[in-house]
Design brief:
Elements lengths: L6 E9 L5 H8 L8 E3 L18 E3 L3 E8 L2 E7 L10 H5 L4 E6 L8 H10 L3 E6 L8 H8 L7 E4 L4 H20 L1 H4 L9
Parallel strand pairs: 1-5, 1-6, 6-7, 7-8
Antiparallel strand pairs: 2-3, 4-5
Helix pairs in contact: 1-5
């Protein structure tokens, strides 16, 4: 397929530690995703705060990669960024050439989403916010929007990263948001030039 593809579109999935980024990439990728998950050890307990992610046995140490073929000439590449603070230095480079991003949020730990949103706004990268379903009480959308201080134009949706249909809907929402931003000439001025890196 590689020789026949004309356009590769890059989407990044970001968010805090343990919010489901790897799960989302796995659930929607048509290929077996490349991932860099490693088993969490006691040595890492001093580095990563795991109190809010009980039962997490592995963690991403570089990034996840998946692919979705849109048609014979267009492919969507998915990159899942590591959520731990010690890996945030990778994010700015990963955002280069990105069509847009999905910020995955665990509403029980909403503060973990601030850095991702800040970096995306800094780069002028279009993004949506997807609240991942962890089976707990659902937080009202307006409460989440206010807690994250989201601009009204940023889509906010519910998502179950384990569900292929739900993960696809998050990506469709992002693509629609990007399309609307590019269709608006006043918004286009703030968007980065699109190059796949």
């Amino acid at each position: 397929m590689g020789a026949s593809v004309d356009h590769g579109f890059k989407i990044v999935v970001v968010g805090g530690f343990g919010v489901g980024k790897t799960t989302l990439v796995r659930s929607v990728s048509e290929i077996r995703p490349l991932n860099t998950e490693e088993t969490m050890t006691q040595a890492g307990e001093a580095v990563d705060d795991i109190r809010q992610v009980r039962g997490k046995a592995a963690t991403t140490v570089a990034f996840d990669f998946g692919r979705i073929t849109l048609d014979a000439r267009n492919v969507l590449y998915l990159f899942g960024a590591p959520g731990q603070e010690r890996f945030w230095f990778l994010w700015d480079r990963l955002f280069s050439g990105t069509l847009g991003a999905v910020v995955l949020v665990d509403t029980r730990r909403i503060d973990d989403s601030w850095y991702a949103i800040d970096r995306l706004e800094h780069h002028g990268t279009p993004f949506i916010v997807a609240c991942n379903d962890f089976g707990g009480p659902v937080r009202a959308g307006e409460d989440v929007r206010e807690a994250l201080d989201l601009d009204p134009h940023v889509p906010l949706i519910d998502c179950d990263a384990r569900s292929r249909a739900s993960a696809k809907q998050a990506l469709i929402t992002l693509v629609g948001h990007v399309k609307n931003r590019y269709a608006d000439p006043s918004a286009r001025a703030g968007l980065p030039r699109q190059e796949f890196v």
